[in-house]
Amino acid sequence: MSEIRVDTISEKTSGSGVTIDGVLIKDTTIDVNGTAGALILDTDADTKIQASTDDNIEFFTAGKKQFNLTSFGSVQAFRDSATTFGPSFNGQHQRGTIASPTIVSSGDRIAEYKSSVYDGTAYLDGPRISFRVDGTPGDDDMPTRMEFQVGANGTASLYAAMTLHNDGSLIMNPIAGAITVFNENSVDSDFRVESNGNANMLFVDGGNDRVGVGTNAPARTVQIVDSSATPYLSIVGPNDAAAGIMLGDTDDETVGRITYDNSVNNLQLWTNDAEQVRIHSNGVLSASDGIALGVGTANTASNVLDDYEEGTWTVPNGAVNGITYAVASVAGNTYTKIGRQVTINAQVTFGGHTADGNATYLGTLPFTPLSGGVFVGKVQSTADITGCCVEINGGESFIRLMKDSGGTYDYVSRAESANQTFAFTISYLV
Question: Which CATH number applies to 310-429?
């Protein structure tokens, strides 16, 4: 073997460098000269760096290309293996040294992919993916998380826009005004959320524009399917506020409502932007314009029950229709009004008023009768009066005591009613 030993090899011609078996050494550079050249790093020449194509650097280990740096600045990794594993990047971190590692702590950065971008003056931090310890580590226990950091408009600092924690929870942290969008391209793509006991706890049917809760085949825009024994849809509000459902259209989204007022515990039904029906806390139902009896009769006045009332009415001691009476006692003087019909009940005992031939009247009625009508009811009396009854003439506010006078009806006089008791029920229209 021939051997040359020198301290310095200098170029013969200034600027031309020194070539040794095709390798050019010039100033501070080494030129392997061509695609076949390589920088060999081991004894069997299978670990090397070379440029087999122009403007492309290739890294080989064990005779296989593992890494490629292109002229565009992109990095390519390769894995030539029969296994299922592809290339990987392995960032290792410890609190000590490589030779003497020590345990990491919560929050430690394990590895990070960083980017920088020029703002016209300096390079600022660009988007970053950070791998960190996410909890207290121990023997065979290493909780970790991934942070995806970006910079908001108007600032040079980064913030964790999305974090994947050690328990699999994904935390989105958008800034004010941001919108999180799924399926931005509006393709026929479904979205499903699974709970512990339901594979379709939330299902978005992208092709049919429907949302299902508990079903993957919603038949309506929104459908809830609950197979439990007591399925409920619950809307909970504050103790002193109202909660409900709004029903409307593009012109008025609140034109219809179902509202529960928690402050007074009543249920309200709204149509045409106004409350029409209320169920009170004691179970009483009230309707603003009545209740239509019959399907499709809302606008038919004859089918609408628009009033109901119960109360008492007064039979006064004094003058009625210009005639003075002495009323000793009144019992059961009640009335019930259902729509236009009023039914009154009374038991009246007269005192010893003047026993003359004037007619016996009772007043005042709780509601004025319908004009033009005549209403008659039976009477039970302590007086021996043939065919005794009561009569109401339409438009008058009092009752007449009547009797059978040989086939015709006549007034019961004050002489006949003095110190007598009369009990009756009569209905009339208003």
Answer: 2.60.40
Q: Rounded to 5, what percent of the chain is helix, strand, coil?
A: 0, 45, 55
**8 A C-beta contact, residue 353 and residue 409:** no
Q: What is the pLDDT of residue 34?
A: 67
Predicted TM-score (pTM) of the model is 0.63
| Contact yes or no for 128/117 (Cβ under 8 A) | no
Query: 171-230, pLDDT tens digit by residue?
Result: 999 999 899 898 999 999 999 999 999 999 999 999 999 999 999 999 999 999 998 888
Strand order in the sheet with 158-164: 109-113, 128-133, 144-151, 158-164, 170-172
Specify whether the CB–CB gap between 374 and 394 falls below 8 A.
yes
| Distance in angstroms (rounded) separating the CA atoms of residues 29 and 281 | 94
- Host H or E run for residue 416: helix 414-417
**Closest alpha carbon to 424 in 385, 384, 365, 376:** 376
Mean pLDDT of the chain: 89
Secondary structure, 3-state, 365-406:
CCCCCCCCCEEEEEEEECCCCCCCEEEEECCCCEEEEEEEEC
pLDDT tens for 254-291 read: 999 999 999 999 999 999 999 999 999 999 888 888 88
Q: What are 67's strand-pairing partners?
A: 59, 77
Side chain identity at residue 332, one-letter code: G
